[in-house]
Amino acid sequence: SKTAVIIGASHAGVNCAFALRKEGFEGKIQLIESTSFLPYHRPPLSKSFLSEDKDIADYCLKSAEAYEEAEVELLLGRRVLHIDSQNHEVHLEGNHSIHYDHLVLATGASAVIPALPGMTVGEGIFPLRSAEDTLAIKSFINAKSQLEVVVLGGGYIGLEMAASLRKMGHQIALLEREKRILARVAAAETSSFFTALHQESGVKIHTGQNITNIEHLHDGRYQLDSDTGDSFVADMVIVGVGISPNTALAQNIGLTIENGILVDAHCETSTPDIFAIGDCASFIHQPSAKIIRLESVQNAVDQAKIAATNIMGNPQTYDSIPWFWSDQYETKLQIAGLNHGYDQVVHRIEKEQPQKQAVWYFKEGKLLAVDAINHAKAYVLGTRYLKEARQLHPDELANPEIPLSK
Ligand code: FAD
What we know:
Layout: E1 3-7, H1 11-22, E2 28-33, H2 48-51, H3 64-69, E3 72-76, E4 80-84, E5 89-92, E6 96-99, E7 102-105, E8 109-111, E9 125-127, H4 131-141, E10 148-152, H5 156-167, E11 171-175, H6 188-200, E12 204-206, E13 211-216, E14 222-226, E15 231-234, E16 236-239, E17 243-245, H7 248-252, E18 261-263, E19 274-276, E20 281-285, E21 290-292, H8 297-311, E22 323-328, E23 331-337, E24 344-349, E25 357-363, E26 366-373, H9 376-388, H10 394-398
Parallel strand pairs: 1-2, 1-7, 2-3, 7-19, 9-16, 10-11, 10-16, 11-12, 18-20
Antiparallel strand pairs: 4-5, 5-6, 8-17, 13-14, 14-15, 20-21, 22-23, 23-26, 24-25, 25-26
């Protein structure tokens, strides 16, 4: 029988292994992961796993028994060094190789560490991508109250880190290079909401700050110098400036790379029988005809299923409505759709419930996406309208006198 090998055991890889079994794959499934923890949910790393007294085992994706029952061979602490696509083999650390008939790349992404003088990860400077990173941060903090923390980057990870650390009692300065936080991913209305939320919670937000140098001071603290001439001093620095896809294995065997391992609508790469899914994969987004790469649990899980069905010879195409969430303090943001190329925004604040808001994105009158803030109904409605490609009238939507359900 055939062997399916999956490289990377996180949201994408684990879901693909189980989807293969569900689809009736009868051969061997080997799931190879370079790190050692039982695969876990990543979103809590910046949320409850950081701020609460929890164990990483509380967040496992599947129990150890579930892998046994499904006969998914989980090889933890084993890194794939290279792929031999001619001979259908993957080579692991320790001179070990494994044959595959079907190969799935689910290698994810790694935190970007800006190449700045003084940017040495470890000691008091931490990225946040893995459980090891959160554990390192927790151990650095180790019950110290009132640390001064600089968070570099005002994207979702940076904001969640700021919220969690603030809740734990630390002093936070969040530094963003752009003129506003969330500039890359959201409209100004959403940025303003989250700026106010953080400022009301006591986080200092400094925009337009491009850090050019970090100095480790004699007292163990860090000084960050901006090209504006401003300096910021902190006990701990969190680096949240983005991620880059892990494409080296794919690149070495000549797969097409375009901001990720480029796949078709079946999640197949430029080489037959090699699939790529999750944060490492890029694809053509049909509505915009642009190559995109999504960094979300939804995308990892949905692509995992698509790859599995295609491996089983049952061709299905990926056309999910993207969704994403972020939790900061008591605020829940849910995003449906993709706002790329929007030309109109409707910001709706519910009457007498100003904490309930939604930012709706349109292009040429057509709904693209919604940022629903504490607003499950807007999220559900947005998802439904996107799925059914139904017309939503921006003018009516903008009128808070008209109930959303109408
Ligand atoms: P990854 O989770 O990156 O996993 C890839 C795995 O491959 C890793 O475990 C890696 O060790 C392994 N690997 C790589 N190379 C090799 C190799 N050569 N050999 C063996 N193993 C290898 N998404 C949301 O939708 N909502 C959220 O609220 C949210 N919050 C997040 C908070 C944090 C702190 C982080 C870090 C991410 C968050 N995300 C969130 C994003 C989400 O976690 C990712 O989209 C998701 O983890 C992608 O899954 P993946 O399996 O594609 O990649």
